[in-house]
Structure formats: C-alpha cells, structure tokens
C-alpha cells in the first residue's frame, strides 16, 4: 500500500493539477478562478472547482489502480478488497 499512497495521492495530485491548469488556460486564456476571485461569476467559480475536483479524483483513482495492479503483479496478492460489499440499505433489509 505505500506505493498506492505515493502514486494515488502525491504524484496524481501534481499531475492532475498540471492537467487542469494547462487545460483551463488553453480553453479560457486566463488562470482558473478561485472562490476569492472578485470579478469571476458564480458559475465560473463553481464550474472550475467541480472540474478541478473531478480531474483530481479520476487521476488519483487511476494512479491508485495502477499501483494496486503493479503490487499484484509483483506479489501475486491484491492489496485491497476483492469484492464490493452490498449497499447498507440492502444489508439492513437482509437481502
């Protein structure tokens, strides 16, 4: 799991931030607004935040998955859960 932590959190966030920043600047011709950018509209600020968060989450999941696959390749064991547990509301019903 140390490989997954490094790949999934540190490296992936740097890559995702670079991808977001470069993409936003190419598309909009300016830096992405933050919550404290005075002359940016609400939709622009919220859209930038949602896009940034989505890119970071997807990149982190991809890097973590690659790390887990590499761990399995090297050791023969999967470092996480094998299956997904049933939804909590289904467990409560007994289904």
Give the arrangement of secondary structure elements.
Blueprint: H1 2-28, H2 42-75, H3 88-93
Residue ranges: pLDDT <50 for 5 or more in a row?
none
In helices, the fraction of residues equals over 70%
| Average pLDDT over all residues | 87
- How many strands, what sense, and barrel or not for the largest sheet? none
Radius of gyration: 19 Å
Q: Tell me the strand percentage band.
A: under 5%
Q: Pairing-aware structural class of the strands and helices?
A: mainly alpha
Number of beta strands:
0
Distance between the termini: 33 Å
DSSP helix count?
3
Description:
- With about 100 residues, this protein is mainly alpha-helical.
- The chain has one domain.
- It contains three helices and no strands.
- α1 runs antiparallel to α2.
- The longest helix has about 35 residues.
- The model has no long low-confidence stretch (mean pLDDT about 85).
Provide key terms for this protein.
0% strand, mainly alpha
What's the short version?
The protein has 95 residues and is mostly helical. It is built from three helices and no strands.
């Amino acid at each position: 799991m140390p490989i997954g932590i490094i790949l999934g959190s540190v490296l992936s966030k740097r890559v995702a931030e670079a991808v977001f920043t470069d993409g936003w600047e190419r598309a909009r011709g300016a830096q992405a607004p933050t919550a404290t950018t005075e002359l940016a509209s609400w939709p622009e600020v919220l859209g930038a935040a949602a896009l940034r968060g989505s890119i970071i989450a997807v990149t982190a999941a991809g890097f973590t998955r690659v790390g887990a696959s590499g761990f399995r390749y090297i050791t023969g064991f999967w470092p996480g859960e094998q299956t997904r547990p049933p939804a909590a509301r289904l467990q409560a019903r007994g289904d």
